[in-house]
Amino acid sequence: MNFGMFTDFHVREHLSQAEAFDESFRQVEEAEKLGIDSVWLSEHHFSPERSVLASPLVIASSLATRTQRVRIGLAVQVLPLTNPLRVAEEAATVDHISKGRFDFGVGRSGLTRYYQGYNVPYVESRSRFMEALEILTMAWKQEQFSYTGDHFSFQNVTVVPKPYQQPHPPIRVALASAETFALIGRLGYAIFISANTSIPQLQERLALYRQARAEAGHTGPADIALRIPAYVAETAQHAHDEPELSTMHAIRYAATELMATAANPEVAARMERTANTPYDDILKQRVLYGTPEAVVDRLQMYQDTLGITGVVLEMNYGGRLPYERVINSVRLLTEHVAPRFK
User: Fold this and answer.
1) How far is CA 340 from CA 43, 299, 336, in A?
2) Please, what's the b/e burial string for 196-217 (b: 16 or more CB within 10 A of its CB; e: otherwise)?
């Protein structure tokens, strides 16, 4: 199982934006030393209270020069907001700078605030996403190509550089809505799933994904990464108590700031349900908090019920945990949890 650390480049309380960058870069460097397999970057816009990570490809490029071993991924590049040719060039450049340690995670985002800010109609997000993804793969695979679609049109273009990894970096798609699982399954891409969705519902949707994938002729096991908040501590009490304020901050933020800009009723309803869930229930259903032994047991359950091949762990859910506690949690994870799944 691949153990990945998700990072938001949070702006913690009383930190400047410059300090937020410094702390997050330092955290990634230390996580690599501790043995984390991969680091995954989010993408946020117009959210100064939350994150400074508006340019994930730029950050990925910097991380590629600061690290030696860890894989660097996007979770995710919001494709409908981009010019796909520009992204193809920049992502291929990061792939070269990292010497092939780059993973290209893509999605649409469930928040309309980003689309409003960029003046992109959210109703076009799915069609823009599909066109952009097709253009990216054509740009990486073909020496010269043309494309005509509803949103993008290019004639006889040649994207340089081509990726370091051939034919291109691994592509992973974030899935949320039910209808997307079969669609992406037919295309054969690796996927992210979220612990915000219940296990029975995820099992149903993954069955659709696997069936569509097999019917389209894609062989080999499906590559499924579970994104979930995680915190590991020496005792169960510490694992539950220490991240509580940060966790409830994240939940309140989702309820007050994000729910109003959720893209569809399912996303808004999920946020509302989570906002009204007691912390004890959050611990049981939505997060991976515990001693190393407890975290191993929970991960084994996810592996058995969902068939996951990796995890993308939000090691500072809510962004309020002190740096030292985050690093201690990563250390316990890499020393006592990850070896059980190698």
Assistant:
1) 31, 10, 7
2) bbeeeebeebbebbbebbeeee
> Is pTM, for the whole model, over 0.85?
yes
Question: Residue 57: which of 19, 24, 28, 88 has the closest Cα?
Answer: 88
Element (H, E) at 18: helix 17-34
Tens-digit pLDDT profile for residues 99-136:
999 999 999 998 888 999 999 999 999 999 999 999 99
Smallest CA-to-CA distance from 173 within 240, 106, 75, 264 is with 106
Cα 183 to Cα 180: distance, rounded to the nearest angstrom: 5
Number of H helices, E strands in the chain: 13, 12
User: Residue 48: is the preceding peptide bond cis (ω within 30°)?
Assistant: no
Task: Please compute, for residue 298, the number of CA atoms within 13 A of its CA located in the half-sphere on the CB side.
Answer: 23
Instruction: Give every residue of the chain whose pLDDT is below 70, as ranges.
Output: 258, 262-263, 267
232, 290 contact by CB (below 8 A): yes
CA distance 318 to 252: 10
Hey, what domains does the chain have and what are their CATH numbers? 2-341 (3.20.20.30)
Nearest alpha-carbon partner for 308 in 199, 208, 211, 230: 199
Which residue in this structure is represented by tokens 């990894």? 165
Q: Give the position of tokens 């316990």.
A: 332
